[in-house]
Amino acid sequence: MRSKAAYPIVLLLIVSLLIGGLTLVNAQGPGCPDSANICVSSYSPSRLQRDQVGILDIRGVNLNVSGSIPTVVRLLGVGDLETTVVSATQITAAIPSNLALGPYVIQITNGDVTAVPGSIEIFAPVPTSEPPTFAPPPTPTTQPTDIPGVPNLLVRTYSANPSTIRPGERVTFTVELYNQGTRVAQGVSLSVDPGQKFLPADGQATLILPDIGVNGSFTVNFTVIAANDVPAGPQNVNLTINFRDFSGTAGSSKQTVVVNVDALARASQVVLARYLVNPNPVIPGDPVTISVLLQNTGNERAGQVLLQIADGILLAGPQGNTFAVGDIEPGASASVDLPLIVNSTAKAGPQSQSLNITFLQGSESKTANQTMTLEVANVVAPAPLLLLESYSIGEDKSFLRPGETFTLTMNLKNIGQEDANDLRVTFGAVDVTPDNGTPSSPSNTSTTFAPLGTGSTIFAGDLPRVEGLVTLTQEFIVNGTVDSGVYTLPIGLRYRTSDGTAGADNLGASIVVIIEPQVNISTGGPVPETLNLGEPLILSLELANRGRKAVNFTTITAEVTNGEVLEGQGAFIGPIQTNDNQNVDLNISTLDLGTMTVRLIFNYTDDLNQPDSIVKEYEIEVVEPPPPIDFGTPPPGFDPFLPGEPVEEDPDALLGRFLLGLLGLGS
To answer: Which run of H or E residues covers position 7?
Structure first.
């Protein structure tokens, strides 16, 4: 029959499961319905006698579903037990000896997964049966007095975790209290003595413990924090254990546990943890505010901290270059705003700036040097900015030939923030960084293009800023000995700004020069001016290269009106070297009366690897063919096929033909 005391516990379990929405697994068989849940196959013991410390052994699978979250065994109504995960199929839990009588539901929790394999019952020990004794007849004796005795608690064993700590760290002691007195210790409490280098942690000022019987023991855990100034070496942690006996007589016991302390040297260390610059990037000559965060990463207070800006790109502002920060405790930080001015000579780009931090470590002065990097803006003074906006070498011209003359038309524009006065345009490069402040004369004139009619310099006058525009023209001739290519015509500009400073720029115009092939195309004979309808036109063409460079011919294309190309269309020609020739034949038929136009296109690749062609064109008049020749009417009775009179042959001639026939020399 189920004990009545079990119903409240079962009801408590059901309510907790409904409220918490936990995942339950209560498997007693070998199988497991879900591989992601805890599956318990067995546990022992299921009953434990009171005042006995037991180990609950649980077997199954998936007992540690999530490796990052420890598995915990809990008794409902008691709390979490000290759990040890042996493996994914075995866990153990320590059952305290001071539980009240009755059943306790076992709960296994691992993250969001909870299993309830059953319960364990705490029962009272069975009284020892002794044979009945018969009291002797009363004798007149005096009433005996109580045997004197008191509880006596002491620390029998203990351990520290970790065994070695540093100042400011925590240590957890596991202490076994043993009652070696002659009476039960009731109302037991444990506390850490005040006034020492160790303080209680986690709100554990005083621990209330259960009663401890004679020769009984109880194990308790408590945590303390070491002070920052605790000395190195083994250090005592003093404890006080208070208790009373059944009569209410109070007692106490002073006990000590020991932990090893690895103390660190005390030192202050102030570092530049962070800084913000406003504005960023900084502008030379303008004010700037730098917000600095200093942090004491040491374990000793840094007193009277001063921050000083060293010589660099930053100058003292309205509050000078030294700033008082005050004291900074270990691990603490302090911020300060530094109003400063950027040196007007600061170079553009990332620049380094040093800081000197002075502080007191105890009574000793210390200095720390720190560095920060500032981005300096590139400030450009107003100056003319001249561009060659557009230029041309003539209408519908894209390239020039050696020896050809042309007119260069160019548009110069000033898009800068300063006027360009007394602008002079030189067709040659000038030195843009003169030592004496005066631009030099042209030092690199063009050998490909020579100016005609004037010198190499044109005076353009003043060119206003922002939208100033001037159009200039100059006639040139191309050097007759140049090869094909793209050449730059240098354009040097010299001017003065409004303050009289000399300036110079170099521009360039790119001009294409191509040497056309010098090929003589001839026919084997004169091309007829007229052609009879149906009569073919046969063209035997000879291509002779008379130039100074090879011509890379590709194919020939014939475009014929009132005719059709029978042979030679698309014929490959190939490269023709200097003073060499190549023959091409075309066969063209006529289609109808009238004019037949033959347009021959000789395709080649020029020196700039661009396709080009040489065109040759002929016009031929197609006419009716002449009528056949009339030989007149033959006389009556004339038959051209009638044999005539026989001719008498010479016998000697007949013999000669016979002999030649025998020799195979005649017939």
So the answer is: helix 6-20
Confirm or reject CATH 3.30.1360.20 for domain 153-261, answering yes or no.
no
Class of 519-623 in CATH? mainly beta
CATH level 2 (architecture), domain 6-123: Sandwich (2.60)
3-state secondary structure of 520: strand
Q: Judge if the upstream peptide bond of residue 439 is cis by omega within 30 degrees of 0.
A: no
pTM of the complete model: 0.40
> Consecutive sets of 10 residues in the chain, 667 residues long: mean pLDDT of each?
45 44 41 66 86 83 76 84 83 84 87 83 72 56 58 93 89 94 92 90 86 92 89 91 90 92 82 92 92 90 92 91 92 93 91 93 89 89 85 86 89 87 88 57 74 83 86 89 89 87 89 89 87 89 89 92 90 91 91 91 90 92 82 63 56 67 60
- DSSP lists the bridge partners of residue 468 as 414
Q: What are phi and psi of 20, to 5 degrees?
A: -80, -15
DSSP for residue 659: H
Burial of 136 (0-12, 13-18, 19+ CB in 10 A): exposed
Domain boundaries, the chain: 6-123, 153-261, 270-376, 386-513, 519-623
CA distance 97 to 339: 70
Q: How many other CB atoms are found less than 10 A from the CB of residue 253?
A: 19
Q: Is the peptide bond before 194 cis (omega within 30 degrees of 0)?
A: no
Architecture of domain 270-376: Sandwich (2.60)
